[in-house]
Amino acid sequence: MPTRFDTQTGHDRHGFYPQAETVEDFQRNLAAVQARIAAACLRSGRDRSTVRLLPVSKTKPESSLRLAYAAGCRYLGENKVQEAFSKWQGMQDLTDLHWSVIGHLQTNKAKVVARFASEFQALDSLRLAEALERRLQTEGRGLDVFVQVNTSGEASKYGLSPEEVPAFVSKLSAYPALRVRGLMTLALFSAEAERVRQCFILLRTLRDQLRQSAPASIGLDELSMGMSGDFEIAIEEGATVVRVGQAIFGARVLPDSHYWPSEPGSGGGSSARPLN
Ligand SMILES: *Cc1c(COP(=O)(O)O)cnc(C)c1O
After folding, report:
1. To 10 degrees, what angle do helices 62-70 and 81-90 make?
2. pTM higher than 0.85 for the full model?
3. Which of 64, 87, 143, 179 is the one with CA 20 to 30 A from 113?
4. With bands split at pLDDT 50, 70 and 90, how would you rate the model's confidence at 260?
5. Closest ligand 1 atom, residue 260 Cα
């Protein structure tokens, strides 16, 4: 079915974004991303205040994160908990800087997240919910969480299948330290905008269905979807959080297979992932 928009993905730029090396670079990149967010909101009839930009700083050194902070960033997203934790330790002087862990978490690392993160976007098992709850109770903290959904159907992606989500979400009210905010997804990594858009539509539709069935304590306002290559399409389909790394910080040196399980046979040797 054709959609109202013909927005293309920027996945062909993946791996080619220039490095941000000064506060001015960060200011310029942030302003450019903000302008694109505003334009996407305008054409889809959405209020700009309903979309939050989460800058993603994974692989970048502390010096680079400090420049982003100086340019105004107060929330940073990191994919790997150990990397996030050591950055947090090194930047304790920035008391109003908050951390969002957006990548898959092993149950035995729950205690690390419970210590320092403000938000966790990749909840995908009850064992993990249980472990987080226990550690959060010990720490006397709460944590904003998003349930990660695999909307692309790729076996290599983390997250629950859409069919699993209703039963999963209905069990989360047993964990009061976890403040459920909504759903998160990574779309298909493809230059075919229409297939990418279908992933976002699926997440929104699922959220709308859950609103009929989920316990009242479960928040379902948030849809975290969209990254450098596809955040405008995500906004057109209802994203309330977009997670943008390279368009703000510059391309990453480490291949993305370091962060996402690679496709079988893809090798994972280059920073530009193969397009589907
Ligand atoms: C790295 C990452 C992003 C941001 O990707 P960019 O291409 O740098 O914008 C978004 N979400 C998750 C889960 C990530 O790991």
Report:
1. 70
2. yes
3. 64
4. low
5. 15
And the tokens for 36? 């694109």
Mean pLDDT value of segment 151-170 = 93
| Separation between Cα atoms, residue 79 and residue 129, nearest integer Å | 18
Q: Is there an atom of ligand 1 within 6 Å of 228 CB?
A: yes
Q: What's the Cα-to-Cα distance from 46 to each of 30, 33, 41, 240, 269, rounded to whole Å? A: 20, 16, 5, 10, 39
Mean pLDDT of the chain: 91
Index of the ligand 1 atom closest to the CA of residue 121: 13
Q: CB atoms < 10 A from the CB of 262, how many?
A: 17
**Using 50, 70 and 90 to split pLDDT, how confident is the model at 10?**
confident
Domains parsed from the chain with CATH numbers: 12-91+109-249 (3.20.20.10)
